[in-house]
Backbone:
């Protein structure tokens, strides 16, 4: 993640290059000061609840009004999350990609080692699930014709 020092050192040209507005940049800085892990890597960004912020951990902190407007709106937080990672340096994006890649590891219970799945294994799992779904549908049709 971008450190607060690095975030403060960005200039107008960096923002333009990243496609981030000055307002978004200011809010990102405020949110980072509030919680340095605010824009940590999200695993499942398909869920509408991924960008919901648990405000109970900020009960003792004074939250600026413009930040509150973002914290209560998951879609706006998602946009800020994307803008944050647009500002991230190449090394930070690589760390994010590596983190997400590590989440594709499965646990081998026999020897407690992590074994990375290949793309072929993911394709094969999809084929197995597709075949099981097709077989289940065929069985369901046969049961309906018998009844």
Residues:
């Amino acid at each position: 993640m971008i450190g607060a020092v690095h975030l403060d050192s960005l200039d107008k040209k960096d923002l333009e290059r990243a496609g981030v507005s000055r307002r978004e940049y200011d809010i990102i800085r405020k949110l980072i000061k509030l919680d340095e892990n605010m824009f940590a890597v999200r695993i499942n960004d398909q869920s509408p609840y991924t960008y919901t912020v648990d405000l109970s951990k900020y009960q003792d902190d004074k939250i600026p009004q413009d930040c509150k407007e973002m914290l209560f709106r998951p879609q706006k937080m998602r946009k800020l999350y994307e803008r944050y990672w647009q500002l991230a340096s190449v090394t930070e994006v690589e760390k994010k990609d590596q983190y997400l890649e590590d989440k594709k590891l499965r646990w081998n219970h026999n020897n407690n080692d992590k074994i990375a799945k290949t793309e072929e294994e993911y394709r094969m799992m999809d084929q197995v699930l597709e075949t099981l779904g097709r077989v289940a549908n065929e069985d369901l049709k046969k049961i309906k014709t018998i009844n």
Notes: Residues 107-146 form one domain.
